[in-house]
Amino acid sequence: MSGVDLLTVGEALVSLRSSGPLLAGGPLSMHLAGAESNVAIGLARLGHRAAWVGRVGGDELGEFVLRQLRAEGVDTTAVRRDPARPTGLMFLERRTADVSRVQYHRAGSAGSALTVDDLRGPLAAGPRMVHLTGITPALSDSAREAAGWAARAAADAGIPVCLDVNHRAGLWSREAARATLFPLAGYASVVVASTDELDLVAQAGADEAAAAAGLLRRGVRTVLVKLGADGVRAYTAEGVRHVAAVPVTAVDTVGAGDAFTAGYLSGHLDGLDLVDRLGRAVTLGAFAVAGHGDWEGLPRRDELSLITGSAAGTTLR
Amino acid sequence: MSGVDLLTVGEALVSLRSSGPLLAGGPLSMHLAGAESNVAIGLARLGHRAAWVGRVGGDELGEFVLRQLRAEGVDTTAVRRDPARPTGLMFLERRTADVSRVQYHRAGSAGSALTVDDLRGPLAAGPRMVHLTGITPALSDSAREAAGWAARAAADAGIPVCLDVNHRAGLWSREAARATLFPLAGYASVVVASTDELDLVAQAGADEAAAAAGLLRRGVRTVLVKLGADGVRAYTAEGVRHVAAVPVTAVDTVGAGDAFTAGYLSGHLDGLDLVDRLGRAVTLGAFAVAGHGDWEGLPRRDELSLITGSAAGTTLR
Amino acid sequence: MSGVDLLTVGEALVSLRSSGPLLAGGPLSMHLAGAESNVAIGLARLGHRAAWVGRVGGDELGEFVLRQLRAEGVDTTAVRRDPARPTGLMFLERRTADVSRVQYHRAGSAGSALTVDDLRGPLAAGPRMVHLTGITPALSDSAREAAGWAARAAADAGIPVCLDVNHRAGLWSREAARATLFPLAGYASVVVASTDELDLVAQAGADEAAAAAGLLRRGVRTVLVKLGADGVRAYTAEGVRHVAAVPVTAVDTVGAGDAFTAGYLSGHLDGLDLVDRLGRAVTLGAFAVAGHGDWEGLPRRDELSLITGSAAGTTLR
Amino acid sequence: MSGVDLLTVGEALVSLRSSGPLLAGGPLSMHLAGAESNVAIGLARLGHRAAWVGRVGGDELGEFVLRQLRAEGVDTTAVRRDPARPTGLMFLERRTADVSRVQYHRAGSAGSALTVDDLRGPLAAGPRMVHLTGITPALSDSAREAAGWAARAAADAGIPVCLDVNHRAGLWSREAARATLFPLAGYASVVVASTDELDLVAQAGADEAAAAAGLLRRGVRTVLVKLGADGVRAYTAEGVRHVAAVPVTAVDTVGAGDAFTAGYLSGHLDGLDLVDRLGRAVTLGAFAVAGHGDWEGLPRRDELSLITGSAAGTTLR
Amino acid sequence: MSGVDLLTVGEALVSLRSSGPLLAGGPLSMHLAGAESNVAIGLARLGHRAAWVGRVGGDELGEFVLRQLRAEGVDTTAVRRDPARPTGLMFLERRTADVSRVQYHRAGSAGSALTVDDLRGPLAAGPRMVHLTGITPALSDSAREAAGWAARAAADAGIPVCLDVNHRAGLWSREAARATLFPLAGYASVVVASTDELDLVAQAGADEAAAAAGLLRRGVRTVLVKLGADGVRAYTAEGVRHVAAVPVTAVDTVGAGDAFTAGYLSGHLDGLDLVDRLGRAVTLGAFAVAGHGDWEGLPRRDELSLITGSAAGTTLR
Amino acid sequence: MSGVDLLTVGEALVSLRSSGPLLAGGPLSMHLAGAESNVAIGLARLGHRAAWVGRVGGDELGEFVLRQLRAEGVDTTAVRRDPARPTGLMFLERRTADVSRVQYHRAGSAGSALTVDDLRGPLAAGPRMVHLTGITPALSDSAREAAGWAARAAADAGIPVCLDVNHRAGLWSREAARATLFPLAGYASVVVASTDELDLVAQAGADEAAAAAGLLRRGVRTVLVKLGADGVRAYTAEGVRHVAAVPVTAVDTVGAGDAFTAGYLSGHLDGLDLVDRLGRAVTLGAFAVAGHGDWEGLPRRDELSLITGSAAGTTLR
């Protein structure tokens, strides 16, 4: 696992998708899901060396998860199989054209049994960056401990940490999330949040600008506020920048945030300046929403130019 | 069948749907269809006790119809199996993205053989409301007689009747429809019509307001004019109210009118005031158009809040 | 329509197939069905000029039927569209692995409205042979009259007639069938029947040999008794011949009899002797049962050698 | 819930079936599963009044389970929704043409939280018979207690109990199973077991005949030993009877044992003698293996004659 | 092949469509593709006698192509089977909601082996019009020669030629295309081009109006500039006309240009004036984009009125 | 690529499978195909380190091939992308239940452009074994040269070579095959052939035993004669051994030979004796025929015991 550009840590799940109401009992399609593995795939598709670490069960669903990650060229050598626990599951139900619902079956999952020991090796191998999300600490006590350890250890080793807040209301309360994520953010170099997540890593009552300023004061170098169809605002010591989203036909918004993060980190690894990093971020976000699946539509490097913001209905012959 | 909130009377069909031109011969999906059974399902999903009465064949398609109704919790104890006639069929062809075509195979069907006798028992059981549509009288002489009898008998018993005009040009002419439906409307407490159906239950030449006024004069308490994407206008003794449609991504408009009616009647059964009844009506209409199928997307009571008019692309985790 | 080798007369239907119990409501696939059109396709695939005549509705299902027949190179120029009647339908339900059930929706269909006038033109064009089945006379009075007329007119014109008894218990009783088919067989040159159908065209109480002898005495040249997996016995003035079936993995026996007849008639048109005609008949039967669908698996002339009776699990690279 | 013929108690699950290796990630189909609900459906299809009691989650999977049971006419009025626990899941993977594998996700499920209190009402309503399996006691302490209570309470009330041993090696060891099931069998009127399950309810070291004799001595009236393709042996006070299986093309053996039990109990409820009860049992077993799904192929009463043991490749027109 | 209204010349391919990224390996659907065969189908559906000529392989893909053309009523009697070469293939990948990609496998295909001799017969039969595209000359030397010969021979015989520029960047450069297509356009009566194709058939540096004027000077009677969602501009000796597109929900823009051309030519064959020809052209274009597939959604004559520009969400019952 | 247990060399293709006649145009599924990659996957699933080397196009089909190989854990680091040539294709058509047909589209493919230079690196890395088939030399002159070089170079380096004759009649004649393969076999340590392939690597006119003896005399250590359902005969210096096939329900025989070879080589790498190597070979063959796809059903090491030869209809719970 030496020479990895990005190490991501978290739980990878099997997502069972229905195209309509779940109670009707239609066919389900199996997908790899997980915010951190989405980011790893986004980077691997762009040619970076990305690794994912976490636990999967000793079951066939675990085999599925590993097959998908390997197919995408993500380094899985540090993944641990946990024969005593099942691989986590989620149902993603398209309830209406506009509303999707998630039901998690991840209590007691292999992924939630992550420990500090699982992470020592991969971190010691010296990745260029580490990516964490606010989901992992919500999974279990040991996972929270592991995520916290990883952030601190990376920061101590001078490895920049990217933290995506990614609040999951189905897993914990905002209060519990804030208690854990606020201190965690202090170890991050990059913090990614949507507008309504920002207060989970900021002082109480702060508006967006104040929250971002507070993070910058605590040592965060870049605060990225995801605005959905309105793009992104980035706060750094140099000030604030807004970059608009790339207009595309949206067919599936799941995974857009992870794609955005992957694009930003790719730009960082490539040494791009802030505006170009943000440009890559919104481009990857556009690929994600213009394709079905959480990560299946993400681009290779040679495909980045396919989405130009004016390409509706194009056929390339 | 005692204690039923709503009794609906009509023909339930098997709808065979193609996702493209029928002549191409692609796969067909089977669905339960029928304006009245749609309304019954809409109410049952919201927790009301709804019954449907009509005839289905002794064939496997009849079994399918009954299985679907039972699955939805609709009371089918009064349904009659007619071993001598087939269950009615329709083909619903999506000819273009915007144009669907129906072909009925219901001539001589079990459903069209409905008689007054089929309805005596269910009506005697004393439902709180009765729902009829202008489709049933178009099916056969005996069905017309049965629908007329049901309207009169309910009115005589003080049970409010809801009549949805639902003109089917493939079944009869506007002239024939008017000759039957105009008098029928006189027994109704609620009349539901789209703009171009109103003259089938009103004096010749009347505009919308005059037509509604005429119906109110004849004893109708509420006239609901469905305006599609523009919502609904309701005429009562208190005047006229307009309620806008709830904006959603429309994927299938079939069944929207029945959903609307179900929502209104649910509000009525819950004792809501007019504006809240209309609000529930447009909410159910929104669920119907934002989901595939005639009724498959209708909400349970705990789901009513899922559609808020601003929820495009939401994933609830 | 000049120069046709074989004219087939009957009703072509749309067959809606389920792969499991129909009441469960799974997807249906659309297929062209009809004993006579099956025979026409069997001959057209082998390079003969085959025509089918009958009525289809003015509906999209009629378009489907015509598209399929044209795709297979069957001459449809004499087909009549009947705008007042729907195209006939059938449901073919695979109830268990071994038991399929048919439900017809052909009462009042366009196909059942066949008349003598529909057949005058095609018969006047002078086909080399005419094929009829015992299904057509069961459809309606006019269809029975038309089938009888066609048999007599062809016989009068010296055109050999092939009659496949094809008793359909769902359409008429054995008594009614016998009353019509017994005299009809007297005009035939070739009579095809399964063992339990033979008494419908023979004197009461006759065993197989006696029944065949009776038919030969009445002018039939060849009596083919289909034995299913046991092959065929052919009775002619020269005596009786048995040819075994070609062993294959059977996946769908529907259409096997029609394929058999098509193979026999193809051999006849090619001038083969009896044994070779029978050989082609059982070969086509084998193709039919080794493939899904009523006729979809039938061979082109260059494919006849693919089934050799010992080819289980062969991959030709 | 008054007037029920058979009360079944257990856990109903959502079964996610793959048609090939699960790790390949192909589509999954959703099915209702559960030995006890299978039996309830088998009886309901035959026209008996059958109820199922157990817990399902407050989730959409629970809605699916209830929709399926209601569609089949099973009484679900005593089912309890458990909002705090998910509905149980299982994956059923067709690993090879001959080998299927099950993975359970039922630890902590709603179904496993069954309690004695859940059963008091349904049992007090006085069903004619009660059906239990050896799966329920394996689910949790409270479920084991509930199953034991139900057996004793029914026996005390003079309601015959049917116990299907149904050992699930994935849930508990043979030792644990024996410790619970041996005493439980003492309350049963009918015990159903496969050959290798008999020792779980018999004295150690007994062969089949001795094990059956032991059960009969302990008060069991009928011991049914399922022999798969070899049929069944029934032990009663009158001696031993063997009935052969009905030969059909087997496409899916899952659920065959439950179908067998349902057939036997139906015969019991109909007052048939032993041989006819066994005949119905093997007929239902044949329907189950000749169709896909655990229960989807089970017959209505009018369909019992479809399987005759000589019907391979029959099409009923 | 006598009495043909329109003869089209080109390569018909098998198009393998994926609904998502091709690298994911999902199912592919098979379609007939080819600009010229699309035009032939468009005319045949409207009741014109249309023929297509070209080569297909002796393989099963060639059978597929012929089946589709025959199904649509296109005259295929002049098609040549080329046993030594495969039928051409293309992959049509929906990469994102807005971007499709084509990969051709037509190098060395049967279709690319077209020769002048293949065309002599069909042209001698005297069609009323001939349709060519700029794709055929890009396929091979012999195909280029054949296309040129056809244009000249038709022009010499007084048969109007329609040339659709249809530049395929995957087959040749703009320079190579211009060298061939510029002279070819001189033989055409109708030239169809999109805005960015016009310079391939015009003098260098000319704007749209100047390019059209140049073509008119060289003898072209009508120059049609396709503007996509903006409709069409037609240049003739009488001046320039713009006709707007018919607004529909666009689901698949592939084939829209061919549909447009077919509509225009149909109007020409019907003797309509320019505005009505353009009206039919944009109507067929609307059908094409409002349906899936290259040609599958094209209308019969009785369906032309289905698209009216205001019919969103209509269900015809 | 260091430390590889088995290096396989050849062409990996995209196989497009139809479940029925190809001319009907049903959906196609995409699969990775290729005898050598099948063997590599078979070994990787069993935990060996397997590498595949060859060329794939720069196209999306090439991406698909690489994704599949990576998913299976096959080392692809030496694979070369050839931007100028397409990835090879084949159609695998299930023509009847018993007969499948292959059509190759691999002329001019990237895979056929294999050169000696492509193999120098991987061979220099020192794999423990090398696997070649008789397909590669049939693809092109350069591929023939490469295969020959690899066999000689491996033999020179003391690396055992396994040659599977795998005659493809669609690619070359038996004479051409023999001219190349006879000398090639001289470098092999293991030769695998079906009965009718043996004469391509043996002296003219020799029977099986003589052919095997001849190969042994030329230095081959083990000659494996595949007998399909009859198992295998192995010839070594110690004599001849026959091992029966493992009886399973056969659903897809494609890939069985490659599975067999993979099993044998796995046993070899594990140091098993001949009989156990053959046992693993027939076990893997059984997995292949009992599952759909060329390699998709192959077992992991922990699954080897699932197929025991008596497991028909087993469900493991």
From TrEMBL, chains A, B, C, D, E, F:
Please indicate which superkingdom the organism of origin belongs to. Bacteria
- Stretches assigned to the Carbohydrate kinase PfkB domain: 23-298
- Gene3D superfamilies xrefs: 3.40.1190.20
State a single Pfam family of this protein: PfkB
Q: Which PROSITE patterns match?
A: PFKB_KINASES_2 (PS00584)
Q: Does the keyword Oxidoreductase apply?
A: no
Keywords from the named record = ATP-binding, Kinase, Nucleotide-binding, Transferase
Annotated GO molecular function terms are: ATP binding; kinase activity
| SUPFAM superfamilies membership | Ribokinase-like
Q: Which family does it belong to?
A: Belongs to the carbohydrate kinase PfkB family.
- What is this protein called in UniProt? 2-dehydro-3-deoxygluconokinase
Organism of derivation: Micromonospora phaseoli
